[in-house]
Each structure stands twice: as structure tokens, then as C-alpha cells.
Design brief:
Chain A: It comes from Candidatus Segetimicrobium genomatis. Chain A: This is Mycothiol system anti-sigma-R factor. Chain A: InterPro entries: Anit_sigma_mycothiol_RsrA, Znf_put. The structure holds two protein chains of two kinds. By secondary structure, chain A is an all-alpha fold. Chain A has a single domain, classed as Arc Repressor Mutant, subunit A (Orthogonal Bundle). Chain A contains five helices and no strands. Chain B is mainly alpha-helical. Chain B has two domains: about 90 residues, RNA polymerase sigma factor, region 2, helix turn helix motif (Rna Polymerase Sigma Factor, Chain: A, Orthogonal Bundle), CATH 1.10.1740; about 90 residues, Arc Repressor Mutant, subunit A, CATH 1.10.10.10. The longest helix of chain B is centred in the last third of the chain and has 32 residues. Chain B is elongated. Classes of the chains: A mainly alpha, B mainly alpha. At the A-B interface, α2, α4 and α5 of A face α2, α3, α8, α9 and α11 of B. The complex binds zinc ion. Zinc ion binds next to α1 of chain A.
Chain lengths: ~80, ~210
């Protein structure tokens, strides 16, 4: 496997963040973004962006009344 | 329907079934509801979708094999109920792909913005400025086909393969929709961030100035 250049690393950032990558490539990209002034900040930003989306879309538990209604359906 | 009738004839529901199903539902109901809220973009419809999912799951509970992935099984039922009743009949979406938008749109915009650069940590300032309603609003604005994969990947945490199974589409399609969805999401988030920024920039600095 040939070493990736910056452009290739940046193309793989989503897959890397999604954990959709074999271990060798994963380790290579991890080392690259840790050391590269070009890719590092971009990678960090995307990581925080994904975390933000997850965080901001959190919801509370199912309303108690709805839950009660659902479980009552099982008795029928 | 025929299968349901047959099943209920051959395998009457026992109290034990009901208990096992309740435990399963109890564990996954909150996250199913969160997904339903994002998918339908509406609380009332989300409650209806959750109920439909719950009933379908209960009716087909005899097909669930204990020890297999319960979450994937339930989300498959959720997505089918959603597609049957809530999604507009979508063909392959009409794509308005912004040509000039790359994967790092938001990062680049912040870097290019003098206003944001004046802040010590511009990226931090940008992300801190985005409110729950901004992120949800940006997500809601995406075309359905993009929205679904972004919800399943970025909020519900499913893998590409799992999403492919949930939606019955190839993995390559999942990836391309996810990447395009994330690009459009960034375009929308930048609009919100700019708006929030200008609003706060118009205000006098906190505690400053004799007004
Ligand atoms: Zn690099």
C-alpha cells in the first residue's frame, strides 16, 4: 500500500471519522492528521462538527403518556 | 396481513412474549422516538410513526430471533413504516449540488471570514454559536434522501452497511448521499452562523458604553 498524500487523506476524512476503514489505513491517517498542518485542523473541525450534530439533535425520553398508551396496546 | 393471522393462530401470544417485547421496546423507544422526530420533522407525526412502528414490531415479534441485532430489527421496521406512510414518493432526488462546495465548506468559510478570524479560536466560536434549532433546522432542510442517511449515520450511529440494509440501497449510494448531505448541511449551517454573528455584532459589547 502506497503512502497517502494530503489530498487523498482529506478525501478519506469522512470514512475515517465514520470508522469505515481497515486498520492499516486507519493508523496511517491517524498519524498523518496528527502531524500535518494542512490536514490536521480540517480533520479536527470535521470531527467537532459531527459531534455537534449529534449533540444538538439529542431529545428527551419518550413522553410518559405516549409510552403508557403504547404499552396499553399490548393488552388488546 | 395473512402472515400475521396465521402466526397468531399457530403461536398464541403468551404473557412471556409480552414481557420480552416490553423489555425490548423499553430499551429502544427513546432513540426510536428521536429518529422519528427528525424523520417526520413534526411531533404529532413522530408520535404516530412511533406507534405504527411499535405495533408493527409487536405483530411481527415472532419473527425476531433472540440474540440477533434488536436495534437494527426495530429500525428496519421504523424505516419501512416511515417510507410507507410519511415519505413523499421519492425517485432518485433531484440534486442541486453546489459545484463550489467541498467537504470542508464550513471550515473554509470560517477561515476566510475576517469577522470570525478576529476571534481567538474562530472554529470554536462558530460551533458555539450554532444552537439546537439551527442544527435541527439545517438538517430538516435537506432533501429526504440525504436527510435519511445523515440521521441514520450522524445521529443514530449506524454503519454504512447497516444503513444500506435499512434503506435497501447499495453502500455506494449510502456514501454518496451521506457526503452530499453533509455538504449541504454545512452550507445551511453557515447561513445560520452568519445570521447569528451579525445579530450579535450589531449589539454593543456587554457592559460597555454609556447608553
Ligand atoms: Zn496532510
Amino acid at each position: 500500500m502506497t503512502e497517502l498524500d494530503c489530498e487523498q487523506v482529506l478525501q478519506l476524512v469522512w470514512k475515517f471519522l465514520d470508522g469505515e476503514m481497515d486498520e492499516t489505513r486507519y493508523l496511517e491517517i491517524q498519524a498523518h492528521v496528527a502531524a500535518c498542518a494542512e490536514c490536521g485542523p480540517r480533520y479536527q473541525f470535521q470531527r467537532r462538527l459531527l459531534a455537534l450534530v449529534e449533540l444538538k439533535c439529542r431529545e428527551g425520553p419518550v413522553p410518559t403518556e405516549l409510552k403508557r398508551r403504547l404499552f396499553r396496546l399490548l393488552e388488546e | 396481513m395473512g402472515a400475521t393471522v396465521l402466526a397468531s393462530q399457530t403461536a398464541p401470544v403468551t404473557a412471556d412474549d409480552r414481557e420480552r417485547f416490553q423489555a425490548l421496546a423499553e430499551e429502544h423507544l427513546d432513540s426510536l422516538f428521536r429518529a422519528a422526530l427528525r424523520l417526520t420533522r413534526n411531533r404529532t407525526r413522530a408520535e404516530d410513526l412511533l406507534q405504527e412502528t411499535f405495533l408493527r414490531a409487536w405483530r411481527s415479534f415472532h419473527t425476531f430471533k433472540p440474540g440477533t441485532n434488536a436495534r437494527a430489527w426495530l429500525y428496519k421496521i421504523l424505516m419501512n413504516a416511515y417510507i410507507d406512510g410519511y415519505r413523499k414518493a421519492t425517485r432518485e432526488p433531484e440534486i442541486v449540488d453546489h459545484e463550489d462546495v467541498d467537504e470542508f465548506y464550513l471550515y473554509t468559510k470560517v477561515q476566510e471570514s475576517d469577522d470570525f478570524r478576529r476571534a481567538g479560536d474562530p472554529e470554536e466560536v462558530l460551533l458555539a454559536r450554532l444552537m439546537d434549532a439551527d442544527v435541527k433546522g439545517a438538517l430538516d432542510s435537506l432533501p429526504d434522501a440525504f436527510r435519511e442517511v445523515v440521521i441514520l449515520a450522524d445521529i443514530e450511529g449506524f454503519s454504512y452497511k447497516e444503513i444500506a440494509d435499512l434503506l435497501g440501497i447499495p453502500i455506494g449510494t449510502v456514501m454518496s448521499r451521506l457526503h452530499r448531505g453533509r455538504r449541504q448541511l454545512q452550507v445551511k449551517l453557515w447561513e445560520y452562523a452568519k445570521r447569528a454573528h451579525y445579530v450579535s455584532a450589531d449589539k454593543p459589547p456587554a457592559g460597555g458604553g454609556g447608553r
